[in-house]
Amino acid sequence: MKRGFAVLACICALTGAVYFAISKWGIQHEPLNLFDAARQRPVAVDLAVRRDYEVKANAGYWRLPVAIISNGNTVKNTEYSFLANVFAARGYLVASIQQDLPSDPPLMTKVGLPYVGRRRVYERDEANILFVLGQLKHLRPYADYRHLTLVGHSNGGDVAMYFAKQHPELVSKVITLDNLRVPFVLSHKLKILSFRSKDPHFKTDPGVLPTPEQAKADGIDIVNTPFQHNDMSDRGPPSVKEKIQATLDEFLGDANSSDLAPAPTDKPIVSHAGAPLS
Q: 41-50 and 93-97: which strand pairing?
């Protein structure tokens, strides 16, 4: 057992070092300050892509897969670079969207209403994603916008799951970090990975998580962790981010990601249907 933990620790350290190196030398982060005139709403985006993959795609050799990251409440869209770099390293075009604005009403919980009264928030953020996709189709026409990967932390994870439910024809994968409100989409056509915290201050609503039988039937990966809810962003300690990166990288390697993606050289642990991530 100790040897297994030591191996996982080495894998996480190696993965972290690889992504740090690629982030420093190969991944470009570009801020986009967009404005949706129809809704009179600014939408900030942090765009990440690996330069060599972008050059190949721009030359017509490949269409980059697309990942959309939605931020958690009170967390900035730029605070998920540890996730964006994993996707970009594997050849994705990554758009991290600032879903909420300081001028937006505070996020409220109304027990007894669907999604505890947050449907309008999800609809607003759904509109943000559709607007950003429309802009990117003109700015980055060499990407694949028909097989999206939706990613989100906390409220952003609920946004990702809600969008996947509303637009199943556009979404192929969903990765959430401790989403609490929107029930998982049950479909064998959709690959889902979800990291769950062990945080007494953040409880998942009843009916959100699939049963073990449902998870097994649809191939849903539920990773139970000892992590705190708010550590699942760039604010978290390196050990948390490295373990999430290693597991996410393995998931993407098994999920038919870009043929440009590097072949995995190690095997981090991906826990299925409730098994803990130590």
A: antiparallel
